[in-house]
Every structure is written in structure tokens, then in C-alpha cells.
Amino acid sequence: MHANQGPESSTNLSESRRAALVVGSTGITGGNLAAHLASTGWIVYGMARKPQAAPGITPLAADLQDSAAVRAAIAGVDISHVFLCTWLRQPTEEENVRVNGAMMENLFGALAGKPIKHAALVTGTKHYLGPFEAYGQTAAETPFREDNPRLPGLNFYYTQEDILFAAAGRGGFGWSVHRPHTVIGYARGNAMNMGVTLAVYATICRETGQPFIFPGSHEQWNALTDVTDARILARQLEWAATTPAARNHAFNISNGDIFRWRWLWPQLAGYFGVEPQGPPTPPAPLEPRMTGAAALWRGIAQRHSLAEPNIDALVSWWHTDGDLGRKLECVNDMTQSWSLGFSAFQSTPASFFDLFARLKDERIIPA
């Protein structure tokens, strides 16, 4: 049976066939994961509020805030592995805890009785840095390691982990937690998408003859850091879900290289043919500078016959400002997964250039 066919009965779902439920299948993490699993022979169900058709992926429409809708979406669907790759941003961390915790409870409530072997949760480096409203105020020493103690105070990542651990205990399945840092990859309409945001920003700079000014802090410009290609995250998610030694572990995940933005920024500028500039004093974040960008982008899209004239469907100025505006070093230790056999590596410049090439191919940015 091929990955894009309908569900099999539990009696026919053999040990050699893996059926994945990817929750958040239209996002940067879930979309790349679903495509990767489908390409390697998995049966893949992609759940989202508005799932998109994709080769090898059976769409399931459900809002995780609606427990009845989640139950209806997966009724009669056999699932062996679950990958939770979505969250809903709320105005306060208290609301993040309440809303995102309830979404997870609804998911695992609907999965009760399913033959689940493994459930994976994607969180991120805010596990070490704290939530947005207290971001970077109390950080673990770098490089961040998975066994660092939790920070005091509310963090919806911690709530999600606790719900996952409890569900795994009840259901007798394995779990893994994955903590990427600044995911780079293709997705449209995603709220955490630095790669596409920088591509749009560089395009605007080129079209208007403006310099490509680094929008972050001097600390981020000069410090060592890392990022996570969505494709290497997908590979780690599959590896952890199918490797017995990885059962019941949390894993950092980055490309495997480290860099300084002062080294990478001129390379990104060179790709677009714009003049690179470091951070001014004071810094120049994108969100206040891009107040008129929507009209500019509509004109660019019209001139170049681009597929998306609405800039708000492409960029996340606020999130890129948050990542690049930090005033502390962010480096993630990868010893945990490397010591257990995960050996994938991804060049960071190639992460950006591969993404930019795809954006051109799909007429998101001008060729």
C-alpha cells in the first residue's frame, strides 16, 4: 500500500509499515517533516486547521482547540507515530500555557486506544531562554544542554512536555522532545520564519536601492550561534521515532555548524546583490522600519508576477527581530543525539541558499 492511500485497519498495519500523524502539517516544521516521511515510505496523515494537498500526504482537517473535531478527524485512522509540530501564540505566557496545554490534552485524549509506538514534540530554544515576555532574562550557560534545569516561572514548553510524559506513561509508548533553534526552511504563512523574512527584506532592499542592514543587536552580530534547517529537524524526528536508544530523550537539534552573523550576513547580501551593513547604534529592528513594506511589496509582486502580493502572508518581522535582537550568546550542544548515533549535518549557508532558490522557483521572490 502506498503512502497516499487510505487508512489500513489496525490488524493489517504491520510492524514494517509506519503510519505518522503530523500535527501542524502546513507549518515550517510539520510541512517539511510530512514531505520527508512520505518520501521515505511512511503512511502520512497531515493534520491542520486548513490542510493543504501534497503528494503522499492524506489531509485531516481539525482545530486542536476542538476536542470533538480532533476525535472525528482521526476516527478509523490507524496511527503508529505522532509528531506534534504546532502551537498557537497567545498574548501572555499564562494564556500560552492554558491554550497550548489544552490542545495537547485534546490530541492525546483523541489518540487514547490507538496503537501508538512513539510521540514526538517539537519545542525550541525558549526552553533555555524563557518565554517571549521574559525572553533571555534568565538563561542557562552556553552551550545549552538538554539536562539543564528548567527556568523558574511559566513556560508552555514545560507544560507540553509534562502532558506528553503523562500520556506516554498512560499509553505505554515512547516519546522524544526536539529543541531546534531558529528553523530555516520553506513554509508560507508561518509565524516563525526567519529565512523567508530575510529573503523578502533583501528583495525590498534591492528593489529600493537600500543597504541590507543587519536588524539585530551587536551581541548577535559578533557572538557565535547556530540555526536549524527544517530538513535536518525532520531527519532527527524520524531517527528518534525509530531508534530504540533514542526513546524517552530530549534532543537539541541544529545544523551542526556554528557561525557569526558578521560572517554570514555578507554572504546573504551577495546572493541578492545588495550592500551588507552591520548593526547601527542604536540597532535598527525590522518591525518599525517596515511599516510601509506592504505597499512596496504589492508593487514588487506586480512587476515580477509573484505568487503572493500580501507581505503579511510571508514575513514575521517581530520574530526575526526577537531572534536577532537577543543580547546573549545562543549555542546548542548536540552531544546527546550524536552520541546515540544521529550523524546528519547541514551547512548553514546552504540552508539559506537552498531556501532562496526554492522561493525563486515558486515565484515567492523575484528570480
UniProtKB/TrEMBL annotation:
<dbReference type="InterPro" id="IPR036291">
    <property type="entry name" value="NAD(P)-bd_dom_sf"/>
</dbReference>
<feature type="domain" description="PRISE-like Rossmann-fold">
    <location>
        <begin position="68"/>
        <end position="366"/>
    </location>
</feature>
<protein>
    <submittedName>
        <fullName>Nucleoside-diphosphate-sugar epimerase</fullName>
    </submittedName>
</protein>
<dbReference type="Pfam" id="PF22917">
    <property type="entry name" value="PRISE"/>
</dbReference>
<dbReference type="InterPro" id="IPR055222">
    <property type="entry name" value="PRISE-like_Rossmann-fold"/>
</dbReference>
